[in-house]
Write a structure and sequence with these properties.
Chain lengths: 115, 113
């Protein structure tokens, strides 16, 4: 597709359940980002990939969060043993290169609700 | 550290009114600055950007000028339309970074006919 694609768009998980969120970046984009957006807040950085290498995971809030991009294209964000505070929109974004000033393109997000 | 502060909303305007949404930043070096817009039910879209001091970004009648002396990047539009109703996010990309964005909290704009 032409844009960043995320699935599922909506996910309701019971507390303690594991979830996996998928991101298909724009074809050819080297850089891939995951952000977390709580209700009424701006997006907050979680992690960054350049091709298959995870170069920055400083924003992951706990060791329950794990992301991968094994072949340098599709990425998966996994949350283990979900908690209510994990409820948020998870945004995936991609850009052509990993340099300051490049335009970053966002997907529509995966809305996670933990009950 | 790097941070973005933007005016709190919501902002309610009548159609054809003048819009200003203030944004100031804290950063070392020379960050790139962005405005993103989120329409109801949609994802974040880039509205405009500026990559160096005194640059003016513009798109769809919106504009913002990168002011290093006041560390600001205020968003303006001369005549808003109902279709401009959305949440607007100011963001910066630290100089020398891999391209990661740091966002403000967002300002919700409602335009009434």
């Amino acid at each position: 597709g032409a844009g960043v694609s995320q699935s599922p768009r909506y996910k309701v998980a019971k507390r303690g359940q594991d979830v996996a969120l998928r991101c298909d970046p724009i074809s050819g984009h080297v850089s891939l980002f995951w952000y977390q957006q709580a209700l009424g807040q701006g997006p907050e950085f979680l992690t960054y990939f350049q091709n298959e290498a995870q170069l920055d995971k400083s924003g992951l809030p706990s060791d329950r969060f794990f992301a991968e991009r094994p072949e340098g294209s599709v990425s998966t964000l996994k949350i283990q043993r979900t908690q209510q505070e994990d409820s948020a929109v998870y945004l995936c974004a991609s850009s052509h290169g990993g340099v300051s000033g490049n335009t970053i393109y966002f997907g529509e997000g995966s809305w996670l609700t933990v009950v | 550290g790097n941070s973005v502060t933007q005016m709190e909303g919501p902002v309610t305007l009548s159609e054809e009114a003048f819009l200003t949404i203030n944004c100031t930043y804290t950063a070392t070096g020379y960050p790139s600055l962005f405005w993103y817009v989120q329409y109801p039910g949609e994802g974040l879209q880039l509205l405009l950007k500026a990559t160096k001091a005194d640059d003016k970004g513009s798109n769809k009648g919106f504009e913002a000028t990168y002011r290093k002396e006041t560390t600001s990047f205020h968003l303006e539009k001369g005549s808003v339309q109902v279709s401009d109703s959305a949440v607007y996010f100011c963001a910066l990309n630290p100089w020398g970074s891999q391209g990661n964005l740091i966002f403000g909290k967002g300002t919700k704009l409602s335009v009434k006919p």
